[in-house]
Write a structure and sequence with these properties.
Elements (H helix, E strand, L loop, with lengths): L1 H23 L2 H21 L6 H18 L6 H18 L6 H25 L6 H26 L3 E3 L3 E5 H26 L5 H28 L15 H5 L2 H14 L5
Antiparallel strand pairs: 1-2
Length: 272
């Protein structure tokens, strides 16, 4: 517990520092996301034990890092680099088919693309075109990470009924409800603070209305990643973050909430 809290506090400090530096040097967030994306692909392919050979793992890491610059328009076109990566995986499948089977091929083709897209939406939200990107980004953290924290502590305190016993035995219905309530409180506090500091008045009732939806989406992302771990018989994706596990263990819910939030902001014309 103590290690988990300390690691969480350090992560918050690093995040705040990164956001401050990014306000002066916008490339900072892209570099950070490229590193996180590469690490996530490594964890998903190598640490699960799914992909046995290092060649496709390294290729996935390079793709995942490079594509973050592509999404920002600082490198080759996203479609072009994705096609080249897919061709490389196909060639490996053709020439190394005895040691690079169907499951490895599917995971190598799909997961780096899915994960890297998820990470790219972090930057898109932070730099959203209406000028309120920081507000949206902090809400994103609230919808997933703050909700996770409340769910964790409420689950420990009063959790009795299992939410998904086969996938994640420790998660409870009580904890999930606590996560939703926690994210609602977080939304309210964030709106009040931003209004006080910047004068920005968000549509509070709309935000409170969509907060449970995003909180549930975050739980779905968490359970999805847990299901993969369960299938590969591993407890954590890595050991990078003491008390939490790997990058995917800490950012699992964010990687589903961020794309959904980005799509709503972009296409549904939701005015927050």
């Amino acid at each position: 517990m103590k290690t988990r809290i300390i690691s969480g506090a350090v992560a918050i400090v690093i995040l705040v520092a990164a956001l401050i530096v990014n306000s002066y040097y916008p490339i900072t967030i892209v570099i950070a996301l490229s590193i996180l994306s590469a690490l996530a692909s490594y964890e998903m392919l190598h640490n699960t034990g799914c992909v046995k050979r290092m060649t496709p793992v390294v290729a996935a890491m390079i793709y995942s890092a490079a594509v973050q610059f592509s999404y920002k328009g600082l490198f080759l076109d996203v479609e072009l680099i994705t096609v080249f990566y897919a061709l490389f995986v196909v060639l490996l499948a053709l020439f190394r088919h005895k040691t690079f089977g169907a499951e490895q091929i599917i995971m190598s083709l799909s997961m780096p693309v899915i994960l890297s897209y998820g990470f790219s939406t972090f930057e898109k939200i932070l730099n959203f075109s209406d000028g309120h990107g920081l507000f949206y980004f902090i809400l994103l953290v609230n919808f997933s990470s703050i909700s996770d924290c409340f769910a964790y502590f409420v689950g420990i305190a009063i959790g009795k009924h299992k939410l998904a016993p086969v996938i994640s035995p420790k998660k409870t219905i009580e904890g999930s409800i606590g996560g939703v309530v926690g994210s609602l409180i977080g939304t309210l506090v964030i709106c009040l603070i931003f209004n006080k500091i910047t004068g920005y008045t968000a549509n509070l009732w709309l935000l409170l209305g969509v907060t449970p939806f995003f909180s549930v989406v975050g739980m779905m992302g968490d359970l999805f990643m847990s299901a993969i771990k369960r299938d590969f018989s591993i407890k954590d994706y890595g050991k990078l973050i003491p008390g939490h596990g790997g990058v995917l263990d800490r950012l699992d819910s964010l990687l589903l909430v961020a794309p959904v939030m980005s799509l709503l902001l972009t296409y549904a014309e939701v005015v927050l």
